[in-house]
């Protein structure tokens, strides 16, 4: 069989390799998967020997920034630092992030994600005092979500500064806008004397509207920064019934062990979801001039998992000042997370962190290989983990609704007309 082309119609993929955790087993399992009438079936279809190829359900990428994507050519990070990224995005945004600029950049990212085998995405949308620009972003997002319906399920979480809560009316206005788009309320948290009061404002605004929360938290290597503890305590004190997601949590990796473990105990008690962004964190954290970085910035994913915390990994930024690289490819995220976070020689069910875990955190359908599930699959020529993670799997097959899709990636030249520097 030509690996790149599967027969059309109902087929039985014989001699495939599945992560056992996806079918209630351990290790890697050789088996078969039948596709009949666009769904996974117990049996049936024309047999096709797949030579041990690994099969996954299509992925969920739960932390991205579609509104920032692909602005690097016109607004690069001048020094690769976190502050350099903030300033570059701040300067790029005014007068640019509009109904002409946003759609092609967002659409480009989604074309990449779709071709790589992603079925669902949560994106953050900036909202930093520029309310007119922010409303444009949400209008554009609504149209993009409609355009991509049936291919990629889209959610959006607003990204504000937590200090916006100094004006509770501003938080209410923002929350109303986001709620009207079935979105998620969120903010970047940082240590301030009024942080607990500001968090209370966000939790209250979300609870009143039946919304979930998604925070960017402690994206720093300062061991003294622990706003995660405040978030967990507020979640427990308020009895918040929605989902609370926290991302980054870099400072946990450098703070005293007892403090970090006590904080994780609170996170577990509060039932919060965690998303780790290892590629972006390694790019930005501990970057000091021409010095070699000492710290990776990845959060304590093993210790979280041991406490029953729902842990996911995601792409984060793509070709923007916060991360100069990336292609919305969850297999790349899997590969790098495995290397950076030492997921190998560990539990053999980390596959959930790219499928069911993010789906549950986002309240989305959980990708499945069970009979009756949509035949949305990613098939890689690799037959086991070292083969999978040693190559980029550029020849993977993606099936959506039982039909093999065209995996041609968009040409970067499509965005050239948007890349003129100010």
UniProtKB/TrEMBL annotation:
GO terms for molecular function: cytosine deaminase activity; isoguanine deaminase activity. Keywords: Hydrolase. GO terms for biological process: cytosine catabolic process. SUPFAM superfamilies: Composite domain of metallo-dependent hydrolases (SSF51338), Metallo-dependent hydrolases (SSF51556). CDD domains: Bact_CD (cd01293). Its EC number is 3.5.4.1. Residues 186-400 form the Amidohydrolase domain. This is Cytosine deaminase. The lineage of its organism: Bacteria, Pseudomonadati, Pseudomonadota, Alphaproteobacteria, Rhodobacterales.
């Amino acid at each position: 069989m030509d690996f790149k082309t599967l027969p059309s119609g109902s087929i039985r993929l014989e001699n495939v390799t599945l992560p056992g955790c996806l079918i209630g087993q351990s290790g890697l399992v050789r088996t078969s998967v039948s596709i009949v009438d666009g769904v996974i079936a117990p049996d049936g279809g024309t047999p096709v020997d797949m030579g041990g190829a690994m099969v996954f359900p299509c992925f969920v990428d739960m932390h991205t920034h579609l509104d920032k994507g692909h602005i690097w050519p016109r607004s690069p990070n001048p020094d690769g630092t976190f502050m350099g990224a903030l300033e570059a995005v701040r300067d790029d945004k005014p007068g640019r992030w509009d109904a002409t600029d946003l759609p092609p950049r967002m659409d480009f990212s989604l074309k990449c994600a779709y071709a790589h085998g992603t079925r669902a995405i949560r994106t953050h949308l900036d909202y930093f005092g520029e309310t007119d620009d922010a409303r444009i972003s949400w209008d554009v997002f609504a149209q993009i979500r409609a355009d991509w319906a049936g291919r990629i399920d889209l959610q959006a979480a607003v990204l504000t500064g937590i200090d916006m809560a100094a004006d509770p009316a501003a938080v209410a206005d923002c929350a109303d806008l986001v709620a009207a788009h079935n979105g998620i309320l969120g903010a970047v948290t940082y240590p301030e004397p009024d942080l607990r009061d500001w968090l209370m404002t966000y939790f209250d605004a979300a609870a009143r509207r039946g919304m979930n929360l998604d925070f960017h938290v402690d994206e720093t290597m300062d061991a003294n920064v622990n706003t995660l503890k405040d978030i967990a305590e507020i979640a427990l004190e308020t009895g918040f019934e929605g989902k609370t997601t926290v991302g980054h949590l870099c400072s946990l990796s450098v703070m005293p062990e007892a403090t970090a473990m006590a904080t994780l105990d609170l996170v577990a008690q509060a039932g919060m979801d965690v998303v780790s962004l290892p590629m972006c964190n390694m790019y930005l954290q501990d970057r000091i001039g021409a010095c070699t970085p000492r710290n990776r910035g990845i959060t304590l994913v093993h210790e979280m998992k041991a406490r029953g915390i729902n842990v996911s990994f995601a792409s984060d930024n793509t070709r923007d000042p916060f991360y100069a690289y990336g292609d919305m490819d969850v297999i790349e995220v899997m590969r790098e997370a495995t290397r950076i976070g030492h997921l190998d020689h560990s539990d053999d069910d980390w596959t959930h962190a790219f499928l069911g875990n993010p789906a549950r955190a986002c309240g989305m359908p959980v990708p499945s290989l069970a009979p009756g599930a949509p035949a949305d699959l990613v098939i890689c020529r690799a037959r086991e983990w070292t083969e999978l993670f040693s190559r980029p799997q550029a020849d993977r097959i993606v099936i959506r609704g039982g039909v093999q899709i065209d995996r041609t990636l968009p040409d970067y030249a499509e965005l050239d007309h948007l890349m003129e520097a100010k």
